[in-house]
């Protein structure tokens, strides 16, 4: 056997191929995958918030990856169920920290926000919440950011609307304290504004829906007291149960509600039984902005059903994260400072910006549920 000699041309081509392979490997090594956490209730009666919120975040990240928004970075969503309990939130945050998430979109409910923030702070993980609106976290220099204004603003607007537009003079309040960080401040703000405007509170009912066996006793008392209206802070499932109990007793009393119940589940489960309910909230579903209409279309194409406020706000919260990463040149360590100094963002619902505490500045709305959809009555700027 004699050794085979290679021509100079072949050797040159081999060297070029090796060089190209090295360049490709270097390019791959420069490309990184970044994990983004999502925290929310993915099962149970609050899952309408969690599932839609997860989907909104997923859509935003998929679109960012397709556009190569942050050069050299691919984003991956890791969703964790917080069970809508403080302990569940703490454990979920720990799991997200273990997979090296750089930020968390969530939580979705005010009741777990404090526990989630305490746990996330220990990991130096920023939280960007789509739907937490409790004023208990307002004005604090921490790792909590949000795209939904505090609910006390909507509550006062709702009280003014009821007294000035509908002439309400007497109300009963029914608030579910299973979500006390949300219901408590909303109830307090509504009550104080309603009384300040000359209204009378006939009864202030704090319930725990997790241990409530029937709405019959409450409905009978409402019927006996005969208020001009009732104000409720309930989930969509409990709101539907209350409305259906009203129907069974042929009771027709106007209902004013928090944003908590204003999900697609209310449309499906309650329908005409909840027709005419008035909401004070931070989202307008009948918004005709091109950005909103385009989002609704893209969401339906991706997931096969309509979006709700949780999806739209989660998409916006994820945009805050993405713009922060872009401003920080893809460095997660610079993310909190970058998000604090972002300019006004166009948003899906409306333009918004964050202040130096990570709290949002944006419009809120008075909405009527027709039994089929949600229609805006007023925009409060």
TrEMBL record:
What are the protein's UniProt keywords? Receptor, Signal
**UniProt xrefs under InterPro entries:** BCAA_transport, Leu-bd, Peripla_BP_I
Similarity section: Belongs to the leucine-binding protein family.
Organism (species)? Desulfomicrobium baculatum (strain DSM 4028 / VKM B-1378 / X)
A Pfam family of this chain = Peripla_BP_6
Q: Does the keyword Signal apply?
A: yes
SUPFAM superfamilies named in the record = Periplasmic binding protein-like I
Record-given protein name:
Extracellular ligand-binding receptor
Specify the Leucine-binding protein domain's residue ranges. 33-370
